[in-house]
Amino acid sequence: VKYYKFNIRRLNLVSKVSKDVSFTAEGEQAEDGKVSASLKAKLGCKPIGLALEEKWNSKNALELKATVKDQGVVGLATEAKVKFEEKNKSGPLTGSLQTSFANDMVSASLKLVADGSIVDKIEVSGAGGAEGFLAGAGAKFALKDQSFSDVDFKLGYRASQFQANVVISNMFEAFGFEYLQKVSDATSVACQMKLAGASSLPTISVGSTYACNPDTMIRARACTDGKIATVLEQRLNANIKVSWVAQLDTAQGFASGKVGSFGLGLDFEA
Questions:
Q1: How far apart are CA 15 and CA 22, in angstroms?
Q2: Is 265 exposed, middle or buried, given 0-12, 13-18 or 19+ CB atoms closer than 10 A?
Q3: For 32-81, what is each residue's pLDDT tens digit?
Q4: 47, exposed or middle or buried, with CB in 10 Å at 0-12, 13-18, 19+?
Q5: Are the beta carbons of 231 and 212 closer than 8 angstroms?
Q6: 53 near 45, Cβ under 8 Å?
Q7: Are strands 118-130 and 162-169 parallel, antiparallel or unpaired?
Q8: DSSP code at position 259
Q9: Using 50, 70 and 90 to split pLDDT, how confident is the model at 121?
Q10: Cα–Cα distances in Å, from 38 out to 10, 22, 160, 172, 268?
C-alpha cells in the first residue's frame, strides 16, 4: 500500500558516467517554502567488491559510506558509515559499522552505532524462510540506558499468488497484518491493518494495482483515516514516464476547505 507526499516540489537528477560511477543532485521545496538540496557521488569497483558513496546536503552535513561485499564468503557484506554535521547536538561526528549475511534461506545483521567517539547503540536483526514460511526479528539495545527498544517480530507465508504477514512491533504494543493477493497477471490487491495499542482503533488500508498495458499502470488506495488516492503512471516512450497523483481527504478536507491534492511526476532517462 504505497503512500505519496503532497505539497512539495522535488527534482532528482542522476548522471551515470559508467556502470560503476554515478552522480545524483536532489532539490526539494517544502510546503513552508524551505528549500533543501544534496549532492551524491557513487563509485564502485566490482573486482574487489568495493562501493564508495559520498553525500553532501545544504545543511552542511557530509556523509561517507564504504561497503565491501562477497569477499571470502558469498553473501557477506560489511558497511562503514561516517557523518560530519556541525549542528548535531551530541557532536559533529557520528557513524556506524554494520556486518550482514544473506542467502536464499537466511539473513542476519549486526550494527554498531556511534555518536561522537562512543558506541551507544547495537542493532540486530535476522530472518529465515523455508517451504513458503517466513520469520524475522529485530531489536535495538542502548548501551547507556541498558535497555531494549524497537523489538519487532514478523511471521508470514508466501505462495505464488499471495503473501500474508503478521507483525508485532514496539515492544509488543503495536500489531499489524498485511495481505497481498495476485488476482491476475495484470491485477493485484493488498490490505494492511495496524493497531497501535489495545485501546486504539485499528487503521486499515486497502490498495490495488492494475496494468492496463505494458506502458500504463493504475494504482488506488483507500484508508480508514479518510484518505483516498489514485495514481496513473504512463510511459510515453523508452525514456519518458509521466505520473499523475490525486488524493481526497474526506476526514479533514471538508472542515479545512482543502478536500483534494494533486501531483505530477516526470521521469526522463537518456
A1: 6
A2: middle
A3: 778 899 999 999 988 888 999 999 998 889 999 999 999 889 999 999 99
A4: exposed
A5: no
A6: no
A7: unpaired
A8: -
A9: very high
A10: 12, 14, 40, 37, 19
Per-residue pLDDT tens for 207-262?
999 999 999 999 999 999 888 999 999 999 888 999 999 988 887 766 666 677 88
**DSSP output for 33-85:** S-EEEEEEEEEEEGGGTEEEEEEEETTTEEEEEEEEESSSSTTEEEEEEEEEE
Which residues, 6 or more positions from 166, have their beta carbon under 8 angstroms from its beta carbon? 154, 155, 156, 175, 176, 177
The partner residues of 75 in beta bridges, in order of sequence, read: none
What is the Cα–Cα distance from 259 to 270, expressed in whole angstroms? 38
Cα 80 to Cα 40: distance, rounded to the nearest angstrom: 17
To the nearest 10°, report the CA torsion of 230, 236, 241, 244: -30
Q: Answer whether 80's CB lies under 8 Å from 66's CB.
A: yes
**How is residue 49 written as a grid cell?**
567488491
Which residue's entry shows cell 483507500?
A: 222
Give the rounded distance of the alpha carbon of 100 from its chain centre. Answer: 18
Q: Cell numbers 558497511 correspond to what residue?
A: 79
DSSP H or E stretch at residue 244: strand 240-249
- Taking the C-alpha atoms of residue 114 and residue 63, their distance in angstroms, rounded to an integer, is 14
Helices marked H in the chain — which ranges?
Answer: 253-256
Task: Bin 130: left if φ > 0, else alpha if -120 < ψ < 50, else beta.
Answer: beta
pTM: 0.77
Q: Whole-angstrom Cα distance, residue 49 to residue 60?
A: 30
